[in-house]
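Supplementary notes for students who missed Thursday's class. We covered one full example, reproduced here. Read the sequence, then the structure, then the short commentary at the end.
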Amino acid sequence: MRNKRYLYKLAVFFLFALMVGNIAYGQYDPRRSRWMRQRHQIGVTIGLTAFLGELGGADAIGSSGLRDWNFNQNRFALSLDYRYFLLRNLALRTEFIYAYVSGSDANTKEPFRRNRNLSFRAPIYEFSALLEFFILREEPGRGNPFARRRFTIDFYIFAGVGVTYFNPQAKFEGQWVDLQPLGTEGQGIDAQPDRYSKFTPVVPVGFGLAKKFMGFWSAGLEFSYRKTFTDYLDDVSTIYYDNNKIKATYGDVAAYLADPSLGYFIDGNGNQVPLNSTGEDLQRGDPNNLDAYLLG
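Structure (token representation):
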């Protein structure tokens, strides 16, 4: 009887030890503890922007699609972000971006856009919240007895929502002039709508790659498409308004920047062909095609 009681106690001891061992292993699993130790991340990004809208771009009608990407209008962007890992492969990121976007009809050979002769730049300030899903996470390296290296990079996709402040400008006699107050499409005159808002919601989507080094540091590449809910990043959206009324209300500079058209296009033989496509009520932009920009 005494031996049975001894064996019973010994079995209980080993069962308890096994349970404690499993719990301890779970608590100190390096794959688990590593991402939890690094669940807070702060990042700085320097990249490029590209505008997708009415101005510049391909030798065709303007759009917010990638085919209208005008490489020589790329501008620099700076962003600061904070990332918090909710789960091992799921993170919430907040981001602040300062950048410029720009476009110019001088970069296209499409006759009507080239004749329109509009150009702009717009500083933008964006604040957004992104949900990131990591398809690949870099595993712990050698020397870890509990895990083997399976991936050597992070690869993730993301989507989110945000708000962007923008301020379109055009150059006049060597000086950059804010366009929104000038009512270049008749805003604020007679029964026309008031000036557009400089704030717009934005929906960012994209993907990224990152590589860790020196423990807590990492470097990577990221590409994103930012869809806005405005057609006025470039101050161009609807039709030409009566230029005489714009001049009488807002002045000579407003009238010129509303319609700086060339009055001609160049044909295949290099000849100037008269073109009058910028009169009152004629198409200036496309309000059904909202603007977008790229960050990379």
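Commentary. The chain is about 20% helix and 40% strand. Residues 1-29, 142-147 have pLDDT under 50 and may be disordered. If anything here is unclear, bring it to office hours.
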